C-alpha cells in the first residue's frame, strides 16, 4: 500500500473507513444480540428457521447480513485498487508513477518536458556522413576517430565505432551472427590504434593522445577551446547537417582540423502522435536538449514542438524547480540511456 502514500483521496477514504467500519461492526453485534435475545424468549416462532438450525445461527445470519450490506467496498477497496491498477498498467508501458499523490496531480499537469535523445528519438545513433577536409585518407580518418572513441561509452561513440568497423571489414565478416561478434572482437584488438590519456569533456566531446599527438573529437566549443580553426567549407557542410536534424562531430589531429562526421538519431514513430495528443488535451509539450541550436530546432519542427529549451542534458532538480515557477506544474519525461 506504499503506492498510496500521500494521495489525498485514499487518505480521506481511510479516515472515513476508520469511523464507518467500527460503527458497522457495532450495529452487527447489536443486531445479533437483539435477534438472539428475542429468539431465546420466544418473541418469534421457531418455524422461522428449519430443524437443522437454531436461534444462534439464525441470529448470526442477520448479523452477517448487516456487515455484508454495509461493507464499505467502494471506500476501502475500490479506490486503492483503482490506483494500484493504474500504476501497474503504467509500469507495463514504461511509465513509473512514484505514488498515488503523483497520479492524482497528473491531471493538473499543463507542461510536459521531453528529453530529446532516447525519448523523442530512438536513441540509436547512426553515422550517415564522413568527410575529410585534409590530405588524410578516409580509411585512416575513420581508424583515428574509432580509436579515440573506443574508450567512450556515449551512444554517439558506439555509432562511430560501428561505422568505421563496417567500412574496413564488412566484406571480411563471417555470415553467422555469433561468428561476426567473435571475429569483431579479434579485429578490434588488432586494428585500433592505442589511445592514451583519454578524457571526456562534458557537453563538448572527448580528447586523447594517439602517436603522441592530441586528438579532439566533439563540437565547435571543443575546437574553439583548443584553438582549432574550422575552415569555411567545413562550417558550411556542418550547418547543412544541422539543418537536417543531424549532429555534426568535428575531428582535429595535432591541432589541425581533419574532418567531420554526421550522425542521425531518427525520431520515434509515435513521437509526433504523442505530442499532438498532448496538445489536444491542452498540455504544452517542451523539448529539452543539450544539442546545438540548429539540430534541436530541426527536430522540434519535425515533431511539432513549438517551445524549445536549449540546455545541458544533465539538468538538475534546481533548474526544473526554477522552470516550474514560471510555467506551472510540469512533467519531466526522460529515458535513462546511461548512468
UniProtKB/TrEMBL annotation:
Pfam families: Hydrolase. The chain crosses the membrane at residues 12-36, 56-78. GO terms for molecular function: metal ion binding; nucleotide binding. One of its GO terms (cellular component) is membrane. Its main location: membrane. It comes from the Eukaryota. Keywords: Membrane, Metal-binding, Transmembrane, Transmembrane helix. It is found in: Membrane. This is HMA domain-containing protein.
